[in-house]
Each structure stands twice: as C-alpha cells, then as structure tokens.
TrEMBL record:
It comes from Chitinophaga skermanii. Keywords: DNA-binding, Phosphoprotein. This is LuxR family two component transcriptional regulator. Residues 7-124 form the Response regulatory domain. The keyword DNA-binding applies.
Length: 217
C-alpha cells in the first residue's frame, strides 16, 4: 500500500511549542516538516517558495477574526493546502466559525500526540478530523439556528451523496457507491452547495444535519 508523503508547514509564535510540535509529528515516518515558522509573514514568504506543502498546522493565540482572515487568505492563495488548528479555546461557536472557513480540524491542547498525527493525516486526505470538538460544534450550529431556512428539495441521489460525505468518503468512493462518474459527483456536490447555501463540505454536512438528512446521534 502506498504511504502518503505529507509535507507539513508549522506555524506557531512560541518557539518552544513549535519545536515540540515538530518533534511530535516527526515521529511518524510519513510526515515531513518542511516549513517551521513563527509569524504569518514568514509563512507566506516560505509558502511562495516551497510549493510542496500540502498540510498546514497552526498554533495561534491571535484573536478569532485574525485567524479567520488568515484561513481565508490561505484558501485563496494556496487552495491545495489543508489547514488544521491547535487551540486552547474549546468554544463550539468559535470552532463552528473556523470550520465554516474550511479548516480540516481543531485539536485541543489537551489531546494526545496520536490524535494530532491522525488529524494531520485526515487533512492530507481532505477529510475533516471528527473529534468531540467537531461534534460539539455541529450540535451548537444546529441548535443555534432559530429560524431554519426552507428545506431544500433533494433527490435520493443527492441525499446519498450527503450521507457518504458524512461517512468521509472521497469523490471516487462516492462515485463507485452510487454508480456515477467522478465528474458527475463533483457536479452534484456543487449543486448541493448552491442549493443549501454552503461554501464548503463541512457547510453541506451542517445543513444536512439541520434538515434531518444526516443524523449524528
């Protein structure tokens, strides 16, 4: 079986934490830290030079708005990079906002090293790392929407695609499961985003839960 080659960029303003994280993730032979920086400016300078990075691990203590802006810039400038965040704050409202920006995982600083490595691997495969914090954020999002938008009219195929996305299936796996081409699945995903007012896969999942298409119980 082919082992992934994960080229990781690591951003943390705290040198001691950054070096500890480098040591931690490097215990996995498939993870290679190729950028290790302490500021946003350093990060963008090196990302513009080093095109191999496919996962970004961030340990940030900046205000939420600054983090959201950073994520938005990363998405626009380096769309091939999957970002995950290590944080102290486990507020589901904040995590929900981060997920809306396309982040692939939020890892509490109380987590074990194996969880961090699993999150990095999930991000590499373009899959959301589904830990308790992720589930809490989905519950918060569902419960906080006082006025539900009109329920979208979806076919069984559309619903099946949403369920398979929740099951962390990639485009090819979804195509095989519902006997369609990968291009057809991509068109369905784009249609679902437009129909359900979502910008990301996690947005689709949230909307599907809100409309009782997916159950997380």
């Amino acid at each position: 079986m082919h082992n992934p080659k994960i080229h990781l960029a690591l951003l943390s303003e705290h040198t001691l934490i950054r070096k500890a994280l480098v040591h931690m993730v490097s215990q996995d032979a498939n993870i290679h830290v190729i950028i290790d920086v302490g500021s946003n400016d350093e990060l963008f300078t090196k990302l513009n030079i080093c095109k191999e990075v496919n996962v970004l691990l961030m340990d940030l203590s900046s205000p939420l708005n600054n983090t959201l802006q950073l994520l938005e810039t990363i998405q626009q400038t380096f769309p091939h990079i999957s970002a995950i965040l290590i944080q102290n704050n486990e507020d589901p409202m904040m995590v929900s906002e981060l997920l809306d920006k396309g982040i692939y995982g939020c890892i509490p600083k109380t987590s074990y090293p194996t969880e961090l490595i699993d999150a990095v691997k999930s991000a590499y495969h373009k899959q959301i790392y589904r830990n308790q914090l992720f589930t809490d954020a989905l519950y918060w999002r569902t419960g906080s929407l006082m006025n539900k938008p009109k329920k979208p009219k979806l076919s069984e195929v559309h619903k099946n695609v949403l369920i398979l996305l929740w099951q962390e299936k990639n485009t090819k796996e979804i195509a095989d499961a519902i006997f369609l081409s990968t291009s057809a699945v991509e068109k369905i995903k784009q249609f679902l985003k437009e129909e359900m007012g979502a910008k990301t896969t996690i947005g689709l999942i949230k909307s599907a839960i809100q409309n009782n298409i997916i159950s997380i119980d």
